[in-house]
Write a structure and sequence with these properties.
Length: 186
């Protein structure tokens, strides 16, 4: 069947509708795929995002009891990388975390693995991810212990891609600008 790809089953985006990541992926992925090789798990994510909330995933047909108009509610992909599916979950998580913050400034730090290690990282991900997290945590906690005399709070998130979707292993860390003093006085 001609045009059987995800773009064929995707409803046209109205001029007033917001542009979604799925729209960008559908438009740009075919050309990008011809020029670049992507790991299988990246393809799985892209394929989920580009069919999210399209007829390809199915859905439910409803009829309004008032106006008798039919409404189609498409199914979502549910992929954790899909901003359409996970956006509300992220907002709820962020709101819950905001209540746990100490009344002190926080800082953003990034720990990046040199690109010379990309091939090695691809061959032994679990051990090297553990080592990257452990190294960043020890560096930050030692700084807090030695320079501030306090136990810092740290949240670290692993990112494995660059903005150009190439391998780029790094941790984004949110670090408290202070914390409970080790001697317990403040």
């Amino acid at each position: 069947m001609p045009g059987a790809g995800p773009e064929a089953a995707t409803p046209r985006v109205a001029a007033s509708a917001a542009l979604r990541l799925a729209d960008v992926v559908r438009a740009g992925l075919p050309a990008y795929a011809r020029a670049h090789r992507l790991p299988a798990h990246h393809w799985k994510i892209f394929n989920a995002i580009q069919v999210c909330r399209t007829p390809l995933l199915g859905g439910h047909q409803y009829q309004c009891a008032h106006c008798r108009c039919a409404h189609f509610a498409p199914h979502a992909c549910g992929n954790r990388h899909c901003p359409t599916c996970q956006g509300i979950n992220s907002q709820h998580w962020l709101a819950a975390q905001a209540g746990l913050l100490l009344p002190i400034p926080c800082f953003h730090g990034v720990f990046t693995l040199p690109h010379q290690f990309n091939l090695l990282m691809g061959q032994n991900q679990q051990a090297l991810y553990d080592l990257l997290f452990a190294s960043a945590a020890e560096t930050l906690l030692s700084f807090g212990r030695n320079n501030l005399g306090a136990q810092l709070g740290v949240t670290a998130v692993l990112h494995t891609w660059s903005q150009t979707l190439l391998d780029h292993y790094h941790l984004h860390c949110i670090v408290s600008g202070g914390g409970p003093a080790f001697e317990g006085s403040r």
